[in-house]
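TASK: fixed-backbone design
INPUT:
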């Protein structure tokens, strides 16, 4: 049978505080310290690799494309936008198939593909109707 009385708010807060801030001396055993150091080395190795810095540097492409969304569509180069769409589609596939998977690179190229398709939509809309996709006449 259940004859436990319901906990008060104070009891709940104290038990959660105890669960979060209660450290046992067992936590600082040499094996756990070595495991934490190994985990730190793994992260340091990742942050010093091209798997991290390559995509970070590559984020300039989608950021520039998103910033260009506010500019006049007359300035958009159809050839360059097409080339960047193909480039991002190919490298999204590469980022997925390379082992280990580079999800940061995949996200970067997915964002760039989205931005370039948006730019291409603006360019086609401008060239066919003389208006930007917002409906504002730019001619």
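OUTPUT:
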């Amino acid at each position: 049978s259940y004859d436990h009385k319901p906990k008060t708010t104070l009891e709940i807060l104290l038990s959660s505080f105890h669960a979060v801030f209660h450290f046992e001396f067992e936590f600082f055993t040499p094996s756990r310290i070595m495991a934490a150091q190994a985990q730190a080395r793994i992260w340091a190795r990742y942050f010093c690799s091209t798997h991290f810095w390559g995509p970070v540097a590559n984020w300039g492409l989608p950021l520039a494309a998103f910033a260009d969304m506010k500019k006049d569509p007359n300035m958009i180069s159809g050839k360059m936008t097409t080339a960047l769409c193909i480039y991002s589609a190919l490298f999204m596939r590469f980022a997925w198939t390379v082992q280990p998977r580079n999800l940061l690179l995949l996200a970067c190229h997915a964002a760039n593909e989205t931005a370039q398709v948006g730019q291409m939509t603006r360019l086609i809309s401008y060239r066919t109707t003389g208006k930007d996709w917002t409906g504002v006449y730019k001619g």
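COMMENT: Residues 90 and 98 are 12 Å apart (CA to CA).
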